[in-house]
Write a structure and sequence with these properties.
Keywords: Signal. Pfam families: DUF1161. The protein has about 80 residues and is α+β, with helices and mostly antiparallel strands. It has a domain of about 55 residues. The chain has 2 helices and 3 strands, in the order H-H-E-E-E. A hairpin with a 4-residue loop joins strand 2 and strand 3. The longest helix is centred in the N-terminal third of the chain and has 20 residues.
């Protein structure tokens, strides 16, 4: 077996595993905390992040999906 096909197979597997990890569902509290930390680091003040059921989003700005896609995180400036 030559090294090119082996390297290609290893690279493809690594890419697929990385995408799977990135797409893994997060609990709402964990994702909410991560987003809040990033906003705080940028100096954003006066906001509210709320986890809501998918059918209760309404006109709110959606900034993430959590709990396996069953809920959305919404963002509101106060």
């Amino acid at each position: 077996m030559s090294t090119k096909p082996t390297l290609l197979l290893i690279s493809a597997t690594a890419i697929l595993l990385t995408q799977t990890v990135q797409a893994a569902p997060k609990p709402c509290d964990e994702l909410k905390a991560e987003i809040a930390t990033k906003l705080d680091e940028k100096g954003v003040k006066g906001y509210e992040i709320t986890a809501v059921e998918n059918d209760k989003v309404g006109d709110a700005k959606v900034i993430g999906s959590c709990d396996g896609g069953t809920k959305k995180l919404t963002y509101l400036r106060k």
